[in-house]
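Reminder to self: tokens first, then the designed residues, so the page reads top to bottom the way the pipeline ran.
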């Protein structure tokens, strides 16, 4: 199904005035994507930051990117907390600008992921990795935490037949140790997808099927975006901390 690449050649790109692997203007991170909290990546250039709700801007700690949602103090009234929000989501994430995702081509994502031990158990929708088709749709592919856990997650897809909750493809164990993932995916104009996933160098999924929402537009692929970080429903009295490192997103063919 796929051309498999197991030896990675990392190319360092020069950046003027800014060091690679650095968060730029974290204090300006806001609901306006790219206004702050941006990450300068050795492998993929500038990744645009976005912060919304009760979150802390991304930060680099020991070569890993840490995403945090702090707990709202118990004495803080829920009604007051929610009334100050336009919606009830917490979002702290980074979006790849390059490479552009084009129909009919294969892409590869490499990353290491760890859930920090002080993270609480979630009981709400909680995405760690997302492929977005357009703002009017929920993610059409992603990795999301399983409710009732803080160390289990599921790779999933969404399509018209599985519009509300999506379709779970494979479960993965996370926990306090680094988990190494490789994801290869391809999507066509007819919104047919192919996904191959490795965890710790072991293949855990080889899937093909409907992925995303067919549209009568020629520029639909220009809207596809890959994001990582945290995108979840509010759980105000809980805290969540996750780390990513060695992120690399490439076009294979």
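Designed residues (253 positions):
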């Amino acid at each position: 199904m796929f051309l498999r690449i197991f030896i990675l050649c990392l190319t360092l790109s020069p950046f003027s005035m800014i060091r690679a692997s650095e968060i730029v203007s974290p204090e300006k991170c806001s609901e306006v994507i790219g206004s702050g909290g941006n990450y300068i990546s050795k492998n993929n250039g500038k990744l645009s930051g976005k912060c919304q709700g009760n979150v802390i801007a991304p930060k680099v700690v020991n070569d890993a990117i840490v995403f945090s949602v702090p707990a709202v103090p118990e004495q803080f009234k829920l009604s007051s907390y929610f009334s100050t929000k336009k919606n009830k989501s917490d979002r702290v994430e980074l979006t790849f600008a390059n490479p552009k995702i084009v129909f009919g081509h294969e892409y590869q994502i490499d990353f290491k992921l760890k859930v920090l031990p002080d993270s609480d158990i979630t009981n709400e929708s909680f995405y760690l990795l997302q492929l977005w088709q357009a703002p009017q749709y929920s993610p059409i592919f992603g990795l999301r935490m399983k409710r009732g856990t803080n160390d289990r997650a599921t790779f999933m897809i969404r399509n018209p037949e599985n519009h509300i909750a999506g379709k779970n493809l494979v479960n993965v164990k996370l926990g306090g140790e680094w988990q190494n993932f490789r994801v290869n995916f391809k999507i066509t104009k007819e919104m047919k997808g192919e996904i191959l996933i490795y965890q710790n160098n072991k293949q855990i999924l080889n899937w093909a099927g409907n992925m995303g929402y067919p549209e009568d537009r020629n520029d639909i692929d220009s809207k596809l975006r890959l994001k990582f970080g945290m995108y979840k429903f509010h759980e105000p009295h809980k805290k969540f901390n996750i780390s990513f490192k060695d992120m690399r997103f490439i076009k294979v063919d």
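Residues 68 and 241 are 5 Å apart (CA to CA).
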